[in-house]
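# nightly structure sweep
# worker-07 picked up a monomer target from the shared queue
# config: single-sequence mode, recycle default, output format = structure tokens
# input follows
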Amino acid sequence: MKISLSRFSPLALAIGLAVGPEAGFAQTYTLDSFENGLRVVQPNSTDPASKYPWSVYIGGSGTPPTTITTTDKVDGTSSLKGVHGTGSEMQLQFYTYTEALANWDNGWNYARQFVNNPSMNPDGGSPAWPLNRLNRMRFWVKLPAGIGQAHPSHNVEIGTYLRDLGTARNLAESDNQHFYHFLDLRSHGQWEQVIIDTHPDHQRGNAGSTELKENPQIPEPGYNYFDLMTRFYIHVPYAATAGNYLVDGVEFYQETNPENTAQVRSLHAAFLPATSTVEVGWTRNKNENGVNHEVRYSFSPIHTIGWAAATVPANTVVVDEGDFGYNSMAWVSPTLSLAGKTVLYVAVKPQNSTLFRQIAIPLTSGPVVKPLAPASLIVK
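# output follows
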């Protein structure tokens, strides 16, 4: 059972202090925690791929191939299980097309309309999504056995579709606004945290080596990348193995620290407790072949203490080995002294920059609890 805490309650403050408060963490907006079962977007459909927003679109097996499971989760009681059968390709989609749903118009909706909205209120959830503010999407994924890394390429793609305000609702995208965020994951038996930002790695039809800009969508004043996103998917396009693909804790939030998404993006990390190993991966700017990155760590937020105060590990330099659009990078450390610690903060900085990206990695069961920003705060 998940506990809902007032942001000013003693227990909430205690949890926040336990993981270390940080100015860049604020209110999170839950797309799906899977604690309330699978929502329905097309009640008259008999096809799970269109009846529910979450479904295995490619490579599913069983009836249905997407279910809620209580046997393995990040927090709470439940997670999403997508069952893959045969074939080297698996795609788990978040499908936002409503049809014959009470009080909803037929057509493709924006993902933000489903946030904080387990009961599918057509007017949106609470708290309401703030436009032009949320710049991170985070989720947790656990892969079945048999998937190896493709370094310096990628083996998982997060595909997004964006639609401007003037495009008809029967379309999920406007003017080829279909983007990809690249991940290089592997089967290690643990949950992996993934943070998607507003700087995708690829756009449909581009050459693989083409570098995109931050927020590459068609400009819509007052709206950012995630504001205009309709559907999206998690895709294993090359080497999917049969088994259960688990997802949990899908949420959006605002990162207010000045992070380096121009050079470090699609950040993900996992902790392997059996060997006390930390694995962190990301993709880099495609135009910066040969630019190495550096890693530092701390048990306090590095955005708070500063890069210079963070600890330099033995393998601090991550050498760039990619080219021609092969831009994944990885850092692995089995040598850190983690006994008695609850959260590890890892920062990644290109050697030609002063800015970095940070990811907070929980070292105990359950996700990092981000302290909420005070609401309606008045300073006199």
